[in-house]
Amino acid sequence: MKLRALPALAGAAILALGLAACSGSAEATGTPGSDDTSSTSGFAVDENTLVFGVVPDSVDTETNYQPLMDYIAQLTGKTVEYHESTDYAALIEAAVAGKVDVASFSGFTYVTATNNGAQLTPISSIVTAEGQEPGYYSQAIVPAGSDIKSIEDFKGKKVCFVDPSSTSGYLFPSYNLLKAGIDPKTDITPVFAGKHDVSVQKVGEGAECEAGFAEDSEVAKSDKVEVIDETMVPGAPLVYSSTLPDDVSQKLIDGLSEITIDDIIAAGIDSADTDAFRSVFYATKPVDDAYYDLIRDICKETEAEQCQG
């Protein structure tokens, strides 16, 4: 599953969403232990604790990430606390305020957070199967048996998105709708489901949403929807706060840059040896800030207000 380049970004004049223009690229420091900290210690809480933030993609988010949090605790010798975010915006606000130390973001959420001043450095991206490269699919879905056969048919319909700061549940869908000649603000009735699994559920029911978008891992769990289109998006990053002390940052970089599930199990994290964790984690591969320039390009073309600093 190689990251596929999107079609040439052209025709910017017709791609206006009527929203504010995006800012320039993020200024992630990439340097562990930056002196510009939100607290005297550089930690979100204290030197004995790491706060782990996650984009709330589904009802199982915390459970899915528990083995990884256990592994980070072993790597660093610190207590790892799960940061519960009600939505994407709340996680962005927490990152900007320096209230998370380590996090699993979506690509769009990472760009939005750093554009708004969050001091974050990407380490790697999770892949879910052997042989994959970082990246996953944003899928356009309809109820099973629907007469809707293409994105062009979404015009005039009630369409489920995930969250205004979701990469695969809003930014890429908006771009693809615009390519199809559909303004996602005026030519459809947008419905924000909040989580990927809820978007899939609502589309499957076919009442509140006649069509929609979600990431492939959640779509695959339902037999009530059909995929009519898909686009590969950059893999979601594992990031650390650039304000952390050098020794802690280096442990995170060394331990999370390129590992497999077998490495985590061998380290004694028995909770990783389950079908549930294997369904969401196989390995990590290194990524850097420049890897997310594709998202910044689409931000500029769609003029999505979430991109602005």
Summarize the structure in short:
The chain is of the alpha/beta class and 309 residues long.
Describe this structure in words.
It is globular, with a radius of gyration of 19 Å. It contains ten helices and eleven strands. The chain has two domains: 192 residues, D-Maltodextrin-Binding Protein, domain 2 (3-Layer(aba) Sandwich), CATH 3.40.190; 98 residues, 3-Layer(aba) Sandwich (D-Maltodextrin-Binding Protein, domain 2). The two termini are 32 Å apart. The N terminus is likely disordered. It has 309 residues and is α/β, with parallel strands linked by helices. It has a six-stranded mixed sheet with strand order 2-1-3-10-4-11, sandwiched between helices.
What is the level 1 CATH name of the largest domain?
Alpha Beta
- Count up the helices: 10
What structural category characterises the helix and strand content?
alpha/beta
Terminal residue distance:
32 Å
Q: Kindly report the CATH topology of the largest domain.
A: D-Maltodextrin-Binding Protein, domain 2
Helical proportion, percent range: 25-40%
User: Mean pLDDT, rounded to whole units?
Assistant: 86
The SSE order reads EHEHEHEEEHEHEHEEHHHEH
The Rg value, from CA coordinates, equals: 19 Å
Count of beta strands: 11
User: Main β-sheet, in a few words?
Assistant: 6 strands, mixed
Low-confidence stretches: 1-40
Protein name: Phosphate/phosphite/phosphonate ABC transporter substrate-binding protein
Family: Belongs to the phosphate/phosphite/phosphonate binding protein family.
Keywords: Signal
InterPro entries: PhnD
